[in-house]
Amino acid sequence: MVNLKQFGWRLFQIRVPEDWEMTAEGGGRGRTYIRLEDEQMVRLEVRWDDISPKKEPNVKKSLDSFLNELKERVEKANLKFTRLGLREIEVAGHEGYLYHVRGGGELLGASWYCNDSRRLFVVQVHFRTEEYERMREIFQSLLESVVCHGRKWWTWSVYAFRFELPEEYELYNYRLLSMYGRLSFRSKRDVWYVFAYQGMANVILEERYNGDLKKWFKDAYLKEALKQYSYYKLAEEHRLSLKGHEGRRLIFKPRLSFLKKIVLDSFLWLCDVSNRILVMSVVAPEKVHSVISSEKERVLESFTCH
Known about the structure:
The chain is an alpha+beta fold and about 300 residues long. The chain has 2 domains: about 5-145, Protein Transport Mog1p, Chain A (3-Layer(aba) Sandwich), CATH 3.40.1000; about 155-300, Protein Transport Mog1p, Chain A (3-Layer(aba) Sandwich). It has helices at about 60-75, 130-145, 200-210, 215-225, 285-290, 295-300; strands spanning about 5-10, 15, 20-30, 30-35, 40-50, 80-90, 95-100, 105-115, 120-125, 155-160, 160-165, 170-175, 180-185, 190-200, 235-240, 245-255, 260-270, 275-285. The strands form 4 sheets. A 7-stranded antiparallel β-sheet has the order 3-4-5-9-8-7-6, sandwiched between helices. Strand 16 and strand 17 (about 260-270) form a beta hairpin. The two termini are about 20 Å apart.
């Protein structure tokens, strides 16, 4: 039995094998694309198109078009493309289609339209022919775990780094590398959540920051992730346990009283299991900051660092 983990990105959740990690994310013009890989090959591709409220798509017709495009790419590579199966299924309460094709490897995939989020999905797994039985079971588990609508809180995850946020927060920008990553989210209330990780923490802390976690926070993280607040003064500092690790809570406020009263509230710790520094920052107007304390606690509680 394969161990699965929760993966989430842009209001889409699915359970995948523990060694599958997101290696690509992109899109544009109403389309989103995600790719996950293991150490051997591409394993999972997820694609969805945002659909206008005035137009409900024909899933079968859209899937035929997708498979024809796939056939053209395979045959351009001088490989044979074969459709091995197509049947109706249900995914997350929506009618859809399951397909199986071969062409330079094999694919099991599914397509459906989520009328709640108005998105047309295609999800497919890649495998070698000899892996069929194992991947068929994995793909069935994947489809049973799909969540494409109906949640107020959503999972976000990358590189064994996972947390939950309310639906109102949109991904504003991000930077994802194996050594360092940062995701910034913003709500219409002008509240920001920023999450970051720093790999090889023991080496970087010792060689560049004299083992001082707070120095790394001010000299590296703030300047990269929240440069506009790097001149704020440290108003409060607390030592506390975070996810079983010794950590800090640092609260920064403007140095000058006439500036807009914004609070930068950050939690940071060194995870010795993953050898990474983890940070969660909340930036909010002072009045709002006091109101979202329970939300902030839930987000922090959902954080997984190893």
